[in-house]
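WARN no homologs supplied; continuing
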Amino acid sequence: MHTHKINNRLISALLIISSLLLSHVALAQEAPANVKKARWYQINITFFQQQHDRKLDESFNFEGAHMTMADSLSLHKDGNYSLANSGFNAPLALHHENLNGLSFTEQDIDESWIEIQSKLDPVKQPILFNAQWVQPVYEEKYSLPLYFESSLNSQNQSQLKGLLHLHVSRYLHSKIELQYLPKDANSHSEIISLTQKRRMRSKEVHYLDHPLVGALIRILPYEHPLTTQEKQLEQQQLEKKKEAQESALNARI
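OK structure emitted
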């Protein structure tokens, strides 16, 4: 009887393990299909401080930000990135696409964006955060937000931190959640929290305006790295074929 109970428990455990393995395999098989739907973009974003004019405060209506950091990605300089523990499908697809370590890796700011941000007044509109990177953008249920923070501090914490959400359906959509602590703040209670959602047009510069903090955002279409990889392989094959033909011709001569 005792042996029978142990066998039943063993069989139950094996069934559970098999079920989990099959579900993971199914998700892994689903990932490439999701990858094909992903669009890649180059993101440029610059946050800057505004000279506060209290007369404008009533003209702006923003929702408060309630940021959840657990399910987020972050930028890296070395091609390594962290993935959230949940949102399992998105990490699977991202692993498949990111074989070259390209996505969410911070890049040098290109000249066209330097020219755009040079129009900011360095005294009245000092830059708080400035970054450029490329990433795949999925439909909303597969997307994960990007966490960012300023290297500038106020009250022993980052002066600016937030989450950038991007997803695509028929159009490209963004949501920015921000927490901003002015440089001259006397306590953490002066943190300003805001959320803004927007439908985006790629190739255009979008402007987020608030009496204390502003942002410039540009999203450019970027070639899918798997497509780039395929083109490189095709080019290598053509070059090898050409070399073989030239070798055969030289041998005849």
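The chain has one domain: 37-232.
OK
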